[in-house]
## 1
Amino acid sequence: MEGVAGYVLRRLLLLPVILFVVSFATFYITRWGPGDPISIYSQQAGYRDPEAFARVRHKYGLDKPIVEQYGIWLKDAALHGDLGVSFRYRDHTIPEIIGPKIWVSARLGVYAFFLTFLIGIPIGIIAAVKQGSALDPLLIGTFLVFQSIPVLVAVPVLVMLLNVKLHLVPPGGFDGIFSSSMIIPTLALSLPGMAGVARLARAMTLGALHEDFVRTARAKGLDETTVILRHVARNAVAPVMTTVIGLSLVGLIEGAIITETLLGIPGIGAFTFESVTSRDYNVILALVLLFTFAFVIANLVVDIVLVMMDPRIRLGGGPGS
Amino acid sequence: MTVEVGYAGTIESEPPREARGESLTRRALRRLLRKKIAVACMAVIAVFYFIGAFAPWIAPYGYNAQNLDLSFHGPSAHHLFGTDRLGRDILSRNIYAARTTVVVTLATLATGFILLPVTLGLLAGYRGGFIDALINRGGEVLASLPALPMLILITATLRPRFDDFMGHVENGIHWHGLVSSGFADYFLIFGALSLFGWVGGMRLIRAQVLTLRDSEYVLAARASGASTSRILRRHLLPNVMPLIIVSASASLGAIAGSEVILTWLGVGVQPPHASYGFLIDEGASRIALQHHPQLLLVPGAIIASLIFAFNLLGDALNDVFTPGAR
């Protein structure tokens, strides 16, 4: 396990470097591009006075060179944990603004997250056990169709079916996890991911089916269902869970941007897009850093768990790295 | 096919290498052509790309030809899928949208999934040392970024700068119409997609080069005085080519989907040019959902079929190039 500790340490040491590079790049790109929050909001509010623009820009230090602005931001962020001011919501700190949005998105994704596994894993195991019959390609093919329908297409089609035609659900919005407003986001966020889970579970099950302990279990007279459930499934499920948790984080963030924007849900996905279009510099930066941090940690956890379960896996991507 | 009568029907068993030697790629290609599903997928993709490439000759109307008298008309003999709010022909709009997908996927595939990963992977693997570290750390930073938010950020904030730049280029080379034709948009989108696409392919190729670098035939080539670039081109590249094909083909569906999302968010292709992003946006409006479902279903079905074909083909390619992996 020494190798694992060294690997984890190396990756954790790299994290501040990644965050530094990412924060600088994001800082520079957002501020170098034209359009700044002051002029966008002033125009929305109907102000046209160029001197007032200059005054406000000066107040927030936006007239300084970008690299100097970054130095100031970095000092505040690193020393005081102060991520700067949101130009859209000036009365709140950035964590105060982002926190509730994350809470909405987390609740919105909760059913989808569990459904992906609860349906994907059994489908994969069944497909593997029925390998060679027509059921295997049929199941995998069906879920591959779901995977191929972009969220952007799935959500409006679901609205058309469930809201316009059947009047089962509201056209959008979010009323908590026990309301029918959860149905469309849950389907849209879970269906694309099930195929990946099912295929991985199928591959893992196929591998486990030929292990010695499975032959032993059969030899001692257990019926096939018990063999599959108690011996094969257990060995197939764990790696699938950990690998896909990392992947589904990516899917959920991307899916959330589209689903929340389409359905008018006040979560972190829709908020990310709004922040970019309104050039709320410091909020964009905080969001990018948050996503990056979550990605790196999730991938690291996946790597560690995979090694702990299967010591044959070597970390670090081959020799020489 | 006459050569291998003896192997007909035994798809799984590996034909022994012939004395003259057949390249790995050609052998895999032949195995691929024996898979019915793969051939069907390639046919779907070929039809889509043909229609997209020759959109101006195939589409019955222009992508922006409006006829306000025909606003929201249903399917008819003149307009197979009906018309949209501005009386534009839905079929023609979909055909021109295919052109956008064709240009963006091919350009992204060529740069972000073949040129960049191959060059950087070969360089990192064969040279090692500082260059290797630089390429790898750069890749590590890019790979730890959330792709979609970053794509939105780049395309949204840099577009005006980029349009200015392309304007200067136009004036410099006296070749006007780059910005107005939408070419600048394509360039920005595939540039951004390529930036986030190369890391996976680079790692694959680098790992492969590391194992091949010390193989006997590379050693022999070096001993006989072959230059580094010759070894890379003639000896290493043909061996990593299958890996590139598999990893790139698995990404094509995602590339096509990304362009649609970016355009739908308003940061990709700009109107009046056609893209499935706009078509889906128009189809998802309240009035279309209630009374004109074909506005959503036609582009939705086309883009889903294309991504489905890419996904299936990616699977089949994976099977033929890496037998025994499943």
## 2
Amino acid sequence: MMVEKRYSDADLLAAIRNKSTLDSAIRSIYLNYAETISSLILKTSGTRQDAEDVLQETVVSFIEMVKKNRFRQESSIKTFLVAIARNIWLNELKRRERSGFREEVFETSRAEQEPDVSDIIAEREVKQAFRNVLSLLGDKCHRLLTLYYYENLSMKEILAHLPYDNEQVVRNKKYKCLQQLTGMLKDNPLIAKLIKAKF
Amino acid sequence: MSADNTTLLIDHLDHTLQGGSLPEATALLNTDPQAQETWQYLNIAVDAIQHEALHQQVAAVRKEMQPKRPIIRRLGSVIGVAAVLAGLLGLFVFYKFITVTPESVYENQFVAYELRTTRSNAETDALRVAYQQQDWQQVLNTYHLLPVKSGEAHFLAAIAAMQLKKFDLAIPKLEIIRSDYNYFVDEADYYLALAWLATGETHRAIPLLETIRSDKNHTYYEKARAISALDLRILSLK
């Protein structure tokens, strides 16, 4: 059985920023904080599936904040994660129109000085829209764009993962896929509204 | 916006612009609102890709971390079912071991030979009449009085002796047929094996039954196959 490294808060942040240690960091977050977050959801009418979903969204949001240097370390990682999870769950209950439980969640596990996670909650809908749009993109395009923009592989390295003849074909395909995706994002009303608001 | 400008912006996004292209892209973004909007969408597209990929990575790590309990539980169920089946099989084998005896196999397999009208001659007529009347003692008496004993006479006397449970009389007659005659040999094979079973001589009966079971042309092939291999194995272990 794999013995997971136990990170200090500072080490965990460094592990999240390093591509080669990200898996280990994710495991560490789950091992150390999953129980606290799950019990919060389960205590306030959530199911095990709700707890899993909130937990995953919390971990993703936290990692994104760290990677974009938006986590200012004004609280411990645990306090911050619980705040994200509580707000995601509150938001979810609101969406499900279950106000009775919202009061309960609001008071449960609330830190005296709760970190501000309003950005994360505000972006939640947009992130969901991203996922909806991407689910409509073809598998090959999705894979190609992921290899390039997430795995940071070169055209030559991508050739080993996808059945294209040469680097130029990969390059051309990537242009087309990216343009196709931007076209689909333009067609999404929520995302289009977000972009228009910036101009 | 032109395709060339879109390509220029994508190259700018990918940090692959060289020479004069970089200032050209910067100038485009500073002056063209349409280019600025396209630039926003390109960045959002990359955000979307990265967000989804991170989701998948987190989900994959989570899945990998899930305790293998469901599999173990499933494996546990399979082992449980296997254990129950093994237990039932064990009970069945135990039951067979207790109940299968040379005598029980003999009782199940022994069927009196049905006399056919052929193969007759005057000397054996009296013996045949007694046999058809199932007067087993009379068959033996007549057999002893015969001056010349045919293979059929030996055989009918052997079956009559088996009907009377006089296996010590039946066995030598059946052995004579197998060694000295060319007919009634298949019949003698089968009934001799049964007679040996009846007298507990399984070490002689089983090889003979196995010989019959392996010969499809043997008259008693089907009958010998009717004895299960498990029963034979149990008999050989006893």
## 3
Amino acid sequence: MMTFHASAIKLSTGAIADDSNTIGDFVRIMPDGGIYFQFVKHEMGQGIATAMAQIFSDELCADWERVKIEFPSADLKRYQNDANGGHDTGGSCTIIYQWDILRKAGATARQMLVEAAAKHWDVASSACYAQSHMVINRTTGKRIDFGKLAKLAAVMAIPAVVSLKEQTDFRIIGKPKTSKLIPGMVRGELKFGIDAKVPGMLYAVIARCPVFKGKLTSFDASQTLKIPGVKKVFSTQPIAGLQIHAPYMPYDIREGVVVAGDSFWAVKKGQEALKISWEEGINGTLSSQDFERMVEKRALHKTDPTGYVGDENAVSNVTHVRKTIRASYVFPHQLHSCMEPLNCTAHVTDKGCDVWLGTQAPHLIVSELNRVFKFPEDSIKVHLFPSGGGFGRRYYPDMAVEAAFISRELGNLPVKMIWTREDDHQANLGHLFQHLEYQVALDKENHLYAWYEKELRSYTWAAKYADPQIPAMAYDIPNIRFDFEDLIDDELVHSSAWRGVVGHGRFYSECFIDEIAAELKVDPYQFRLSLLKEGRDVFVGDIYPVSSSRIIRVLRLAAEKAGWGKKMEPGEGMGLAVCPYGNSYCGVVAEVAVNDNKLTIKKMTIGVDCGKVINPSGAANQIEGGIVWSLTALMYGGYPIKNGRATQRNFHENKLLRMDECPPIDVHFVPSQDERPWGIGEISSPLGVPAVLNAIFAATGKRIRKVPIGLEVVGSRFQV
Amino acid sequence: MAIIQLTVNGKPYAVETDPTMPLLWVIRDIVGLTGTKYGCGIAQCGACTVHLDGMAVRSCSVPISAVGDKKVTTIEGLSSNGQHPLQLAWEELDVPQCGYCQAGQIMNAAALLSQKPNPSNDEIEMGMRGNLCRCGTYQRIFRAIRKAALINAQTPSK
């Protein structure tokens, strides 16, 4: 086995590494030519491991069939988070930043293999080229396999300049490739964090305070300790550090009681036998309805704009305005419901600490374990696993802090801490709450003259205001104003990020646009097109401007593929929604039928522009999944609270969309001129809701402005 | 505590355990096969699906004492070489995303196909409604089951 010298990657990525450190490179090449791509991001179902391997392997000129994916341990010095080149995984950003890094890294490794072959044959390197896992001598036609060159290649001088492939020469990028992890998945061999095993390991669960901001008063473990296998019961108060005042971060630990023992089953029974009294605090008497009423009142507060275009007071300009239309929309808290319950295995030793888990942010784990326990950063080893869903929840490091604490309290024994599914429902972080207050003004010619939007949101990453500062939409409206108010101090649910993040509330704008079209009695598709100007880029305060042309392209694609405008039966309707996300674009058309309060979603049709598509199969899978994600929120979502406690205890009460309820999902990609990829993991997830709500209006004339919608679902059938 | 004999994927085991411990935790933590997953613990998600004498059961809700002499098959024992038609179809159609629920999906589908080698679309969708997938791969699971039924039909019986 040969490992490319770390400095090869240092040069190609700009990452800083100790040149003697060869752990965690992007590639290992075995003597038999087997390629092990070192995957250092987090795979949680978004298909990024395979997509990244495709980019690297194509530049390397590797044979895709001989490429395998390896998960090395985290190495924060090697893989720094600068420009997302590190382990950090989130925000649909990975493919965007890894594109350049992996192309250079693959080309560097390829060039070193070519140099090695040239040395082997004693010819100039210009006389050799790489193709199909071999280096070929142009003059003699001789060929030599990568595996035979690896040892020599690893010690070649690192080329100062490497040439990237012409895109027309790509053989793996842009081709539908099945995930490299599937053989392990379908045989039950792929290990997730919850499958980690450490010799001598105990198990633990934590009964956390079910009320956000509540505290532990006392507990009686006498019954628990009688259960065979239960070893020790203790509180997590020493590490609990919830800050009641903003800005708190969602990884502060909630107070609770640990039950540790020699099997998960014993500690789960032990948890059920605990008698705990909680001081429930300010949220103990509050319910979701109280919270929503409080937000409704605050929505009407006069606030200053975060950003505006034209005249900030245009909606109330009596000289121009003929009519105003208002509406409020609510996107409530949601659960992540990762199929793999949160977990972490930890082993504190006298030297430091090892943790085993799937995480989107190893650097936060290292910094938190250092802050809380004073372990030197170099002594903390994070063993990385893929996870059974992350969706933003696995960005936070709380599970590692809890598990390390338990290991230390057990006298430095290794321990696997698992959240039961009941814990997941009763004491977990939820998606942030959003309330949107809209108002528009039509002028005397019925033109859309002014748009006012106010967002109230329960989580802002400690920022004082929202970003982007005006709505991320391309509609050409002369006056646009955006106001923002945070709800952090009054939070009822511990808020965090959830797949699609703020897009869920903010793309309710696609429903409100429909309301305006209905007021004007015009077709919602034509109305949108009338507000979009080809070639116009809109700067909204985000990294990327919103491109009207790309919005138009995905809108047209979705509408054409869905047969927009076709004759519908009574009780049937189509609705559409379109949005940018990062620098990708997505348009969705929903086709529904509503009869006697029963909703059938007949089909979802999607047009996507994500720049260069690295893996058409994986990318389509993400779009399909995002739509299912949004339909669960639509039909069953929410995180209802009564007297401070979640009312749903497990999946019998918190429903997720099931196969027979899932509509056919038809995904189409815009042939893109872009030479680089943009993100794909989140973009469709905010759009299922507005598209279906608009379709329900088209079918029934009834406008719904909050999820879950409370209609009964009638399944539709897939097409083969 | 009791000593319980069981057969998993054709191998005999004698485990000393609390007789109320669900089969799931015996398989994962004592036998040591981790392909079978914990999802909900109350038979609502299907991630823990295994076969007892060929019938699909939610192993999180079967106490080990209730297994008796029924033979347990887990995802690791579904086929000797990963060549079950469902495993092949899953790979060909690039079904999974995170993969966590997929062992349960495949085990449920395998029991379905063994009872109904050529199920109708309705029979697939209703037969699979007990298995949750948070990533939303239902359409691909459906197509892969159709595909596997086709592979089955084309394979000459021995």
